[in-house]
Amino acid sequence: LLIEQIKSNFKTLLENISKNPERKISEIPFLNEEERNKILFDWNDTKAEYDLNIPVHKLFEEQVLRTPDSIAIEFEDQKLSYKELDEKANSLANYLIKSGIKTDSIVGICIDRSLEMMIGLLGILKAGGAYVPIDPSYPQDRIDYMIEDSQAKLILTTGNLSGVIEKHNSKVIFLDDKSHAAYNESKESPVVNVLPENLVYMIYTSGSTGNPKGVMNIHKGLSNQIQWIRDYLKCTPDDIVLQKTSFSFDVSTFELFMPLICGAKLVFAIPDGHKNNAYLINVVTEKKITIIHFVTSMLSLFLEESNIDQCKTLRLFVSSGEEVTIPVQKLFFEKFPHLELHDLYGPTETSVHVTYWKCDKNTELNTVPIGKPVANTQAYILDSYNNPVPVGIAGELHIGGDQVAKGYFNRPELTDEKFIPDPFLKKDGAKLYKTGDLVRFFSDGNIEYLGRKDNQIKLRGFRIELGEIENRIREIK
Questions:
Q1: Helices (H), 78-114
Q2: For residues 381 and 447, is the Cβ–Cβ distance under 8 A?
Q3: Residue 451 zone, left/alpha/beta (φ > 0; ψ -120 to 50; rest)
Q4: What is the Cα–Cα distance from 182 to 177, expressed in whole angstroms?
Q5: Fewest beta carbons within 10 Å, which of 92, 129, 291, 330?
Q6: Angle of CA points 336, 339, 341, to nearest 5°
Q7: What is the DSSP secondary structure assignment for residue 194, as one 8-state letter?
Q8: Residues 431, 466: contact at Cβ < 8 Å?
Q9: What backbone phi and psi angles, to 5 degrees, belong to 258?
Q10: What's the CA gap between 6 and 93, in Å, rounded?
Q11: pLDDT level of residue 399 (50, 70, 90 thresholds)
Q12: What is the pTM (predicted TM-score) of this model?
């Protein structure tokens, strides 16, 4: 079949050369019209009727009205109902507004996993601000750089972390101080006109210049992602989701916000609990967790635990951040033959996951695909001249649609290089993100991941550009 297709593509190329002898080879298509339409449009027909004018925190407020007394979040022996969480976040948001926070204001949040973390995130969004997650376990110089580079005028934290941010001039609010004025403002939701294109969060990811770069994601992208994954995973009020991913990793946004728009319960793992499989098995069992996420390398280690058969309440696993391998998939179905394993793919620049694949224990494939594009998202595989490539041929994955980020903070040249005009979608301002990932299409439209175009690597799901390490070594010299 593939040989026949190559013959057809070559024939199309020769015909087009004969018709256009004056054109450059790079400009001559080797896809016929039918193949081109299938690859560019049929396989990218992902339209879903989500109202992307509604930001995620408003979707949460709608759920508060439906289930005000249900438990929304839980951390060890502490709990907050949907109504209690909403009121605390509203009070904080009203205080932030009085402190000058408005749409597109950048607010830092340096905090360990806790109930206060969720209050802080929702409070920032309700005030119209965009949050910058600062993992307190990061090296101090990286924390300092992120605070300075993001120009955050205000930082939310807790008293035990005051030393981490004390050298900066930003205003600080300690969320564990229950007597703080932030908890004494109106419990009513503030009226803030948040638009789909306003910033929702800025996550720093590795940069080749020696310092990390801030990716500016927008409300429309997060709203689309959270509504899609709610539907895809069929999340209901009966689900209990474990939040164990560092909030400086964009996958955390699905763990944090999806449960709260469908009436489920969100259980926070203790700080560093995600590194301890014995603890994870215990918390899954004790809290009756139904949905859990792992990067592939950590899933592999988890599956090797001898007592994971105790985890009887789990119904599905999500794996992302790294390539799912056939050995990991095989081990998963040996341990959990009746559960679901979902392989999701997506870079920080595209509001978390942009392709999806449900793993099959009876598969005859020798790789685990990354699948097809999610709702309101397009996946194009292009050559170095931005031409679509045929099925089976390697090219660079480009992502379009509603989840594409605004760009890099204060990096206009890099933004222009990586976020290019979408030549296929006839929509003003539409952009494609050049992922740098090499992929190819299967004949059914599913996508196979092949590797990187550059020297970027993944370690436990986190992106590392080797240029950043090289630059730091040169500085030491």
A1: 82-98
A2: yes
A3: left
A4: 9
A5: 330
A6: 95
A7: -
A8: no
A9: -60, -45
A10: 58
A11: very high
A12: 0.93
